[in-house]
Design a protein that fits this description.
homodimer, about 220 residues, alpha/beta, 8 helices, globular
Chain lengths: ~220, ~220
């Protein structure tokens, strides 16, 4: 009884996501959907990125959380446009929620739109939000076995940010094993080892954003 | 369209969970459902507990994971009975999955049954698995804001294990804030600060298990 309904929900979500993708692409906006466990450092990565690249790009953030507007306030403090979605218990964002949040943003003043999904390594992966790419975050405190145990995200993401490298001396995390099992799932995955808290080694991530934004602009120009 | 179906699924789950609870209670088994984010330390807590209390209790574990039987193998290495459930992408265990796993255990040789749920701070909370109590785990690397942001688990759990205290010197985690927001959601919550990796401060947790197991035995004796 349940499966056809779930399938319809996913199909309806996909249609709406395509609509969002066309709308944002027409404006030349690069849209990235950030997915990770709770507390892996999505908001801290955004705080750093929004501050460090504020002169290069106009950036906006859609924050997804079950409760509170803590994260939207943290992000807005950097000067970026920010809007909070509260799912009220819902375990992931979807394209409908994202569409309604877009009304609160001035999209004519956005080069890069970040969607920070609900902290959850499973459910958000299944729901396209109209993004150009999914970005996975994994903190080294979570363990090097996570790509094997939660494969779909690592399979579908374009980039993986391995965060909290400043804690490597204090945890059992085999970086080679984590990289090996992630690239086994996804040979083209771009991997960045960073410490968002210390602000270490973010240049690779920033260069990837520059590259993705340039590619997006070119694709849009070719269409016009 | 979707809501009635979801409600039926939850109701059917609840019925089956009641059946499991009666069955396990009749045998005097204390059943605990462990819920946390990926990588918070559920399996490491179990490894320590199974080894340290092996002379006091006969313990068994049902391991829930999307993929791999890594965790069941880790747990079985302690000598405890262990069975792995692979949800194949599913974001939580439910009572049907638990019921089928029970077939693989010799329940006449179990005093305490641990259900290690899929790593997910959201979805497992909604699905009763026939347990006597939910136990929440939160590692200090995840941040002190998590009870506010994911309130339902902290509201429903009987105990909260705050893990990875050995990393407190290296992260921004306000223990008082975490405890305050958790107990605001749940005044009766038992809280244990531990480091499973170092094996520190586990006595409080062990005493709580002893207390819960004794209470269970008494309740069963009073019924007979």
């Amino acid at each position: 009884m349940e499966i056809p309904v779930v399938r319809n929900v996913l199909e309806a979500n996909e249609k709406m996501a395509e609509h969002i993708r066309r709308m944002l692409s027409a404006k030349g906006i690069l849209t990235l959907n950030l997915i990770s466990s709770p507390g892996a450092g999505k908001t801290t990565l955004l705080e750093k990125t929004l501050r460090d690249l504020s002169k290069e790009f106009r950036m906006a953030v859609i924050e997804g959380d079950l409760q509170t507007d803590n994260d939207a306030r943290r992000v807005a403090a950097t000067g970026a446009q920010a809007v909070q979605i509260n799912t009220d218990g819902g375990c992931h964002l979807d394209s409908n929620l994202v569409l309604s949040a877009l009304d609160s943003l001035n999209l004519d003043a956005v080069d890069i739109l970040f969607i920070e999904n609900v902290g959850n390594l499973v459910c958000p992966v299944e729901f396209d939000c109209g993004e150009d790419a999914k970005v996975a975050l994994l903190s080294v405190t979570e363990g090097d076995d996570k790509p094997e145990k939660y494969p779909l995200l690592f399979n579908l993401a374009k980039a993986l940010v391995l965060n909290k490298t400043d804690l490597l001396p204090y945890v059992n995390f085999d970086m080679a094993r984590a990289r090996r099992s992630a690239t086994k799932l996804n040979a083209g995955l771009e991997i960045f080892e960073v410490s968002c808290r210390k602000g270490d080694s973010l240049q690779g991530w920033y260069n990837w954003l520059r590259h993705m934004r340039t590619a997006k602009k070119k694709a849009v120009q070719n269409q016009n």
